[in-house]
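ok trying again, last paste got cut off:
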Amino acid sequence: MSTILFQQAKLVELYCLEPVFFASRELSDTYYTEGVIGNYALTYALGLVNSPYRLQGQATGRPTYKEDLQPIAQDFYILPASPIGRITFRFERFNALSDAYWYAMTNNRVATAREDLPLQRKLQLQGKGKPNSFRASNFPQTGRLRMIERGNKFQSLVFGTHQLPTYIRIGKFMSKVKLNVINELPINLLPVGEYQTQHYLNAADLPQQIETLAFDLISIPPAPIIKNLRFRGAAWQVGEMIVPAGLYFCGRE
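nice, full thing came through this time. structure:
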């Protein structure tokens, strides 16, 4: 995709008013947030697309990023937000165990009454699926969280003319983040050549036509984030910033 889809872009700054948490990596009982905010999460937080908070039924089988994002991809795109300066983190311990006199772990849940255990076994032996509360679930009960500390700043480029809110809620805990538009800049199309970009990029959104020559990878779900990309292909120049031309939600599958 070598033609310009957008005429202008906004350079925006994100200021974390509260600690921000994503389960980027899980090691033992510690859940780490990487120092980046993904562009899919930002798009949902901006209110441009919607998805149910808790997936149920057949919807739990796979994510729906493509179905959610591609309807707006012709007139909107946002880069993953990269940190401004040195990023700081905070650690917190969580404990969701019951304060009851007696409890026990079973099927990744906490039973708070002794009669729960024989009832559960009896129901399993009878082949009955009720009560639903006894079904296994993947909700950790104790552990540690590494979160992006409040006061950190990030920056991103927003392509298109959509109005942006002043505040958004983002992350697992819906943390409050202030959004400032720093500048509005025109987009110029550069011919095919070899370029270097310092902006963070979503690996799933890179155009098929470019040749990636070198990059660093941040492996996080739902798609890896690329930084320090050196590539050959057409490029968009936004002020002094350069990114591959034709960035598109879920464009590379």
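cool. Residues 8 and 179 are 18 Å apart (CA to CA). Residues 116-125 form the longest helix (10 residues).
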